[in-house]
Amino acid sequence: MRTMPRVLIVEDEAPIAELIAVNLRHNGMQPVWAMDSEAAQRELDAELPDVILLDWMLPGESGLALARKWRQDARAKSVPILMLTARGDEADRVVGLDAGADDYIVKPFSTREMLARIRAVLRRRAPEHTGAAVAVGALSLDPSAHRVCHDGAQLKLGPTEFKLLHYLMQNAERVHTRGQLLDKVWGDHVFIEERTVDVHVKRLREALGPAGALIETVRGVGYRLSAQPSA
Ligand code: CA
Questions:
Q1: What is the Å distance from ligand 1's center to 12 Cα?
Q2: Per-residue pLDDT tens digits for 48-81
């Protein structure tokens, strides 16, 4: 088993990529640099990284288009994506998250912030691969097989949605504030806004289809997963 996390940096600006790579190496990670979408795809095909740092503005195919593509890809979809973006506008960030990114980093960013965000996605990726299966109503989740089924049909979830659903199912019928969910699901939320929780809950509901109704919005408080949601 690999001990150094492999981080794929997709960034066309060499000085930025080099700065990131140096910092990753100094912090026990293995950086791999791709300067465009084609090189990134080649690296991804050669060996699956543990995290992808994906620049939004790339020559040719954009980072946003790549994120969308990889989220549809059976092999790549489980790899967390951190979008690098110069766009600070909230609407753009939501577009990035909707495209399948797990988090975003606004340029210019500090090394400390980047490392914290990478560690956070690595942490929240790891735990769901172990543990006992849980079931709520017709919904079942098997962490070891990384599988979610509703009425026997398998559903496709992104890594953050999987972790979020796992936590909600393990703590069904209880109301959780956004802050509590950030603590428990994201682990390190120093740089993550509560709005991020709403985006991932929306994505989780969509991925669950009819079972999405099991996740209730408790107005003014947060969210709850219930076997018998109130209408
Ligand atoms: Ca760029």
A1: 5
A2: 899 999 999 999 999 999 999 999 888 888 899 9
Q: How far is the CA of 11 from the centre of ligand 1 (A)?
A: 6
One-letter identity of residue 71:
R
> So what's the pLDDT on residue 2?
47
Helices (H), the chain: 14-26, 37-46, 63-71, 90-98, 111-125, 159-170, 178-181, 194-208
Contact criterion met (CB below 8 Å) for 53 and 11: yes
The Å distance, Cα 229 to ligand 1 centre, comes to 45
Q: Six-digit token pair at 205?
A: 């509901």
Q: Give me ligand 1 centre to Cα 105, in Å.
A: 13
Q: Report, as an integer, the average pLDDT of 174-185.
A: 87
Tell how far the Cα of 57 is from the centroid of ligand 1, in angstroms.
4
